[in-house]
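Quick one before lunch.
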Amino acid sequence: SPITIGLTGGIGSGKSTVASLFNRLGIESIDADDVAREVVMPGEQCLIDIENLFGKHILNVDGTLNRAKLREIVFSSSKQLAELEAITHPAIHQKIMEHISLMKGPYCLLVHPLLFEKEKNSLCKFTIAISLPRHQQLERSMGRDNNSAEQINRIMDTQMNDEERSSRADFILKNSGTPDELNVKVIKLHEKILEILDQK
Ligand code: ATP
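Model of the adenosine-5'-triphosphate complex:
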């Protein structure tokens, strides 16, 4: 497996944007949010376990997971949330490891909104935090999705604040400027990482 570098940042900070800029430089990435969706697709053991735990009504008629219903259940019961996570977390972890083992290149990126919160930084040689003032996070998140300011604020409150995330990371990418400025920063960071890895 290549060396793994963690990429994190709050909602709307630019994780997907930064990952695709690295992809253009030939660096592969795996997004933990995508993996979380992948493990509950029809046919996956995880979905079978979820159905066994919560009953058939947790599925839609087409056999896919009824996410709204699941959210409703675990939102009101921390015990059931813990039971759900006991199923999903190991599966997500395993799938992330599988993906990473197939990647090529001098290093790869693990994109995770809760890299430090979920302690996935333990899988990473280095970590990158995208830093953005809260008001810009809110603006950009609202520009992209149909979420209300209230919903986004609520999500931001469940995530580590920008200062703490930045203080934990090895590298910081400030994304308060233009997309072009971000691209230049990513190219410079990529070169710096290659240099550091070469010296080891
Ligand atoms: P989430 O955690 O919600 O999945 P994310 O961290 O992956 O978000 P992106 O989707 O990459 O964030 O970016 C959020 C929005 O901000 C997108 O619409 C993106 O195009 C836009 N964006 C990213 N960087 C910039 C920038 N420097 N200037 C203007 N818009 C930007």
